[in-house]
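If I may wish for something, please walk me through the protein I am sending here so I can picture the backbone:
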Amino acid sequence: MNKMNKMNKQIITPFTVQADERIDYDKIVNQFGSTKISVKLLERFQKIIGKKIHHWLTRNLFFSHRDLNLILDNYEKGKTFYLYTGRGPSSEALHLGHLIPFMMTKWLQEVFNVKLVIQLTDDEKFLWKSGKLVDFQYLARENAKDIIACGFDSENTFIFTDSNYIKELYPNVLKIQKLVNFNQIKGIFGITQSDCIGKISFPAIQAAPSFYDSFPHLFCENTPCLIPCAIDQDPYFRMTRDVAPKLGYIKPAILHSKFFPSLRGIDKKMSSSDLSSSIYLTDTMEMIKKKINKSFSGGKESIEKHREYGADLEIDVPFQYLTFFMEDDDKLEQIRSDYSSGKMLSGEVKKILIDILQKLVLNHQKKREKISDDIINKFFEK
């Protein structure tokens, strides 16, 4: 029993994603107290928007939620909501995993025609990492280019850095800080007495954009918020949902994604300090090819064994990447069948993925090149 518990051990926090084997998402849902997205909820979602639902939802890649049903209830009644997501600018280049929440958020913005706020937490990265504040302010603006290149509507999208926008956030930050004690922060985020005091106060800064009047230039009434994010960010918003009713706000709704796997294995989280762990948006086409060819495979060690037993798709990183970036359901299902049966080899699957990712990254690079300071300012200045 002890050996089994040790094997199944996993740590999921905003700062650490670690599993001894495969990440158990059922366990996370039970631990965090969120709700799985049901087929019934997806059917209702699709009926409301009147078009095909995003394949990340139908493939269970965005798999858990808090109060998504209430967002849909209000929308059906003609009431709007706003979207909130963000990015911690720790490196000059984003990787594919960073794109996931932005691509989903863009789709949600388009189908619901709602406003979006994007928080760039230059303060968080300054507190947690070495470097000058001005360095992270620079990275925030560089990251904004990649975010804007995803195709967001400047009329409905406001991007801000915490260090610059803190004056407007501060009233709500103070209200949140007064309602959350140190023991709660320590329990939720693992803050210790040796950490700088900025780390203790930061969660309130990430929580504040969940409340509409943090953006008086955008909203004039109590507007609900929907936050698409990876499930490791949920602790921030569990805290936020706890204090919201005490302050007279609507609890923010959350849409959780699964983790985008590292090239080194599905039980690993990608790291900005490990360039081999992911495909970066600055990678050349040759770099993409080399990285995918070296990625962790669920295929067998020999062609003979692979033909006999097939691939383990649950641990095969190239196939998992295809579930994110191959939009055609029929093609993906054919690959699933052929690869798991041994009919298709690992090299064939990797070749298909390389072609998809090279096109995606090259297209993104071309769009990013066109992002001028004037275009950036349209998103920052409202």
